[in-house]
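Continuing the series of single-chain predictions for the mutant panel. This is the parent chain; the variants come on the following pages.
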Amino acid sequence: MIIGVPKEIKNHEYRVGLTVEAVSRLVSEGNQVLVEQGAGTGVSAFDDEYRAAGATVCDSSDEIFLRAELIVKVKEPQMEECKKLRKGQILFTYLHLAADRDLTERLIKTGVTAIAYETVTNSAGQLPLLYPMSEVAGKLAVQAGAKCLEKPAGGRGVLLGGVSGVAPGLVLIIGGGVVGDNSAIVARGMGANVTILDTSLDRLRYLTDKYNGSITCLYAAPGLLQKLIVQADLVIGAVLVPGASAPKLITRQMVSGMKPGSVIVDVAIDQGGCCEGSRPTTHESPTFIVNDVVHYCVANMPGAVPETSTLALNNATLPYISELAKRGVRQSFLNDKGFRDGLNVSNGHITNTAVAAKFGYDIAQWEDVL
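Parent structure:
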């Protein structure tokens, strides 16, 4: 199969769809890999290294989109990339369509078969291709939040770990999944006072045992979030409903009651955000202030640490890419039910239940559209 890797063009996105090592494996399996010139420079993977691994380095993305049967990316296609996609082509990347009607409709019009990393599942019902970036985003959320708490960034001027004789900052994490767990690791490591809210008692028991009681794990009973959020210095929105829009758990009224200079890091912004006042931002301009509360809502947080993120992502995605290249979409999906959960759009139809419900489309069965 001809596999294409265009350079990411989203604002301050430095990751790349395939590492040099991944290209080498795919070429050894009999595939042809096209890599856009400069695609890997953000992760210190240079054109000569891709050539040595067997890739063809193309001057622009035009040739890649024209020739490739499978397009492998990191972030959702931008408008100019959507214009280059075509019917019969396979797109494999993060999509987060439930938060973006325009992108959904553009992909429908292209006729492309779009498989989303974030909705692929495994036999345990987990999200193996979302997991690594959730780990990265969870840890980055606390780093970013700590920086935003500094006075020059508009924050309260609170040091999360405190110092001798001075209390540490209060970190409230909403959601105890992969993002929340990794946020807790960093926040606790910095010496902060950490509380996690979740609605799963099993998950709360797991986290309590894992941290040996060093963080507070509470069931998200009605009214508890409103009570705790006014005390917090840093709030991490780590809510996930797979494939669907994030619920708006943090209301504008709650934000108005928070301490001036406190910070919200809405990691759920890829899926629309879990705070009513959230809107996507970029690494170039990551924050905005509402009611004296700093909001950090960068939609591609892991792009800030592209070497770590690209390696972690390829560790997870490469087996799926190899399978697609070897067997094609239909046979790959027949062999792996969880893989076909990743199909969101194909041949002008929506195949993901959550996306179809969000935008009022009829849902198509994958067998009928492939």
